Amino acid sequence: MTMVDAQAPAISIRERYLDVVSDRWPVTVVPQADELLSSWLHRLAHANGVAPRAFARVLRRNSRMWSPALDFRLPSDIAKLLSANTGIAPDELAAMMLPHALPRQLLLPLRTSGHRTDSTWLQFCSYCLAEDAQPYFRRRWRLATRVSCSNHSCRLRDRCPSCQSCIAVFDQADLVPQHYCARCGYDLRRAPRIGISPAARQLDRCIDDICRLEGMKDTPSSRSLIRRLLNTHEGIYSRPNLTDLSTGARARCIAYAAKHEDDWLTVGDETAAAQWRRLILAAGSHRTLIERFADCLAKRRELRELQVKTIVQPKPVDVAALLEAYGRVMERGRRRRSNA
Fold first, then answer.
1. pLDDT (average), residues 165-170
2. CA distance 9 to 293
3. pTM for this prediction
4. CA-to-CA distance for 259 and 316, rounded, in angstroms?
5. Alpha-carbon span 16 to 69, nearest angstrom
C-alpha cells in the first residue's frame, strides 16, 4: 500500500527486514592485512550499529576486556556464531588471532590502567590509522619488541595523547569508530608524530625481522632469543620484563642497545639461526640482506656469462667439404696405383 501526499514523501510497504537479511547480520566487514581479531570485531559492531560494550552481550561475553581476550582464544560457539552471521570462514577468523603468528612471551599484557611507565595492551601509529580507509589495529602492534612504524619512521604510541588512557575500544558505550578514544573522544589519527633515531629504528626493524623468522618455532635457539629480548631493559629499568614497560620506556631501551653496539642477541649462540641474526643485524634488515644476496648472485651470473663469451670457440666443421676433399684424395691415390 502506498500513501501519497503533496507535502509528504511516498511511503510503501516493503518486504520484511528479516526476509532481506536472512540469517546474517546486515553488514559484513572484510578483515584487513594483519588485523587483530578484536579490531575486526569492533569494526563489525560499529558497522551494524552496535557499540562495542553492547556487542559483548551479543557474543555472550561479560569480561571487561572481552575482545582482547578473544585475540588469544576464540571459543567454538562464538566462532560458529561469527562465521554464520558474517560469512567469514573459520580459518580467516583464526588468522586474525595471536597464538599462531606471534611469540606469546613477547606480547604486551592485557592491562587497562597503570603508571605512565607501565605497559598497556596495544600500540598504534596515528599515520597508519589516518591512511586506512577503515582504521584498524595491527597484530604486530601487540608486540613489546615493536616500538616504531616501518612505514612512517615514527615511534608507536600506547596511550591517548589527550587523556593518557590506554586504548579501550572494548569498553566504548557510544556508537563511534574505534579510532576515537573511549575515555575522552580524541581522534587518534590526529596524534602528533613522535620521532625515533635512525639507529633505534633500524635495530627495531631487525628485531622484528628476526622475530618473524624465529618466533613461531619452539627451538632452544628461539627460546634463548626470547629471553634475550625480554632482558633488553637490564641496566636501564628494574622491571621484571620488557613487556612491563611503556612504549616510551621500551623505545629508550632499544635506542640504548643501538647506541652501544654489541652481540647481545647472538653471544654464546653458534646455531644457524644465530648466524642469520648476525647477518640481518649487519645488513640493517632482512630485506636488505636478501637484496645483497640477490645482487651478489646477479654479479656472479654476469661474470660467468662474460667468461663464456671471452673463450675462443673453434670454428664449426664443414662436414660436406671435408668429405669432398677426402674423396679427391682417395681418387688421386687410385690413379697413381693404376698408372703404376
1. 94
2. 69
3. 0.80
4. 65
5. 36
